[in-house]
């Protein structure tokens, strides 16, 4: 069985380790190795993770094996994104061995429930335009509502689709 719990500061190293194990396989055909290293440092240094949680209102949920407590992956979200009635999913990553087993659906369903309780109208997220996670999000009820190219410095760009899912509260 899988348990979903809210992460504490104590869990930030686990989140960083899962990102470092998951990003290379996720992005090897999409981004250069130097861009992957740059983005991991930018988004997953312990300082960056602490800032997301303490100053930016990001909440991380962990998916854990109920018996062993092994952590399989995480999702992070932010209510009322940019003052709108939207819950933004900033991150969702599962270890390669834990993908394709329904854990991603469980994490999205959990955040959808929390967002409905918070009376937000939509879930929103950004996804790389070449990431096969797009099909997963479509299966979860998201549609592409726009695209966005973000200059993240050092000559690197994030070329994303914006996807949203109405929550029908
Ligand atoms: C994307 C990710 C979170 C999805 O979670 P998951 O646990 O692998 O997906 P699930 O097993 O819950 O799949 C749920 C449904 O989506 C479908 N699905 C999942 N990935 C799919 C894909 N690549 N193409 C088509 N359908 C897909 C499943 O078949 C399933 O459909 P069903 O309910 O009809 O059986 C996970 O695979 C992952 O961490 N990938 C690498 C990191 C990544 O790309 N993160 C997103 C960054 S924006």
From TrEMBL:
Which InterPro entries does the UniProt record give?
Acyl_CoA_acyltransferase, GNAT_dom
Q: Which PROSITE patterns match?
A: GNAT
Judging by the UniProt lineage, the source's domain of life is Bacteria
Q: Name one GO molecular function term.
A: acyltransferase activity
Give the enzyme class. Answer: transferase
Tell me where in this chain the N-acetyltransferase domain is found: 2-168
What is the E.C. number?
2.3.-.-
Which ranges form a coiled coil? Answer: none
* Pfam families tied to this protein: Acetyltransf_10
Q: What keywords would UniProt list here?
A: Acyltransferase, Transferase
Q: Which PANTHER family match?
A: PEPTIDYL-LYSINE N-ACETYLTRANSFERASE YJAB
UniProt-recorded name of the protein: GNAT family N-acetyltransferase
Organism of this sequence? Spirosoma flavum
């Amino acid at each position: 069985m899988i348990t979903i719990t809210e992460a504490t500061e104590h869990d930030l190293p686990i989140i960083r380790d899962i990102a470092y194990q998951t990003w290379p396989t996720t992005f090897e055909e999409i981004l250069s190795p130097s861009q992957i290293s740059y983005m991991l440092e930018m988004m997953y240094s312990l300082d960056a993770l602490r800032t997301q949680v303490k100053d930016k209102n990001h909440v991380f949920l962990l998916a854990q094996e109920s018996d062993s407590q092994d952590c399989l992956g995480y999702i992070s979200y932010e209510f009322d994104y940019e003052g709108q009635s939207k819950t933004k999913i900033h991150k969702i990553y599962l270890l390669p061995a834990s993908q394709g087993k329904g854990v991603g659906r469980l994490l999205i369903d959990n955040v959808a429930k929390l967002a409905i309780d918070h009376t937000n109208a939509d879930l929103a997220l950004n996804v790389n335009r070449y990431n096969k996670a797009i099909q997963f999000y479509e299966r979860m009820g998201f549609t592409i509502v726009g695209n966005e190219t973000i200059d993240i410095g050092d000559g690197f760009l994030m070329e994303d689709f914006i996807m949203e899912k109405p929550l029908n509260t």
